[in-house]
Specification:
Structural class: alpha/beta
CATH class: Alpha Beta
Largest sheet: 7 strands, mixed
Strand order of the largest sheet: 2-1-5-4-3-6-7
Radius of gyration: 14 Å
CATH topology: Glutaredoxin
Helix content: 25-40%
CATH superfamily: Glutaredoxin
Number of strands: 7
Distance between the termini: 18 Å
Strand content: 15-25%
């Protein structure tokens, strides 16, 4: 199964509650809010360039994004790198990442979501409710995960 529900890994958000809204800057310096994407399913992935498991799952996140980006689906990768765009931009370019990357240098969004380890991924429904969370790295391009998203986005 893709997402774990009701896991109390000291998480402040759980299944069925409203996802905490946040406003962060993207790599171009433009402010982006979670609420901008109401009406779409949103995968929010907290990560950092120094996190080995995060780097391992990036290609499969990109594959998932490419497959579903035109189906009312948004992916937001939120970087916890304290040096922000200075380290994130080269990583994104080198790894050919095309989904939106936001900077959370002060960990405001991460703390609001109760993130204690990276990567941490949250699935949010079109009404802004948390569908589930996954703590740790995942291969997002497996047939079972693709099937999960195909069914979710029907």
């Amino acid at each position: 199964m893709l997402l774990v529900f009701g896991t109390k890994a000291s998480a402040q958000v759980e299944e069925g509650v409203d996802a905490p809204n946040f406003t962060l800057k993207n790599l171009e310096g433009k402010e982006v809010s979670l609420s901008d994407f109401r009406g779409k399913h949103i995968l929010v992935n907290f990560w950092a360039t120094w996190c080995g498991p995060c780097k391992i799952e990036m290609p499969s996140l990109e594959a998932l994004y490419q497959r579903f980006k035109n189906k009312k689906f948004v992916m937001l990768a939120i970087s916890n790198d304290m040096f922000g765009a200075t380290v994130v931009k080269p990583f994104v370019k080198a790894n050919k990442i095309n989904f939106p990357v936001l900077l959370d240098q002060r960990l405001k969004a991460s703390n609001a979501f109760g993130v204690v380890s990276l990567p941490a991924t949250f699935m949010i429904d079109p009404k802004g409710k948390i569908l589930g969370a996954l703590y740790g790295a995942e291969d997002w391009a497996t047939p079972s995960n693709i099937l999960y998203f195909e069914n979710l986005l029907k």
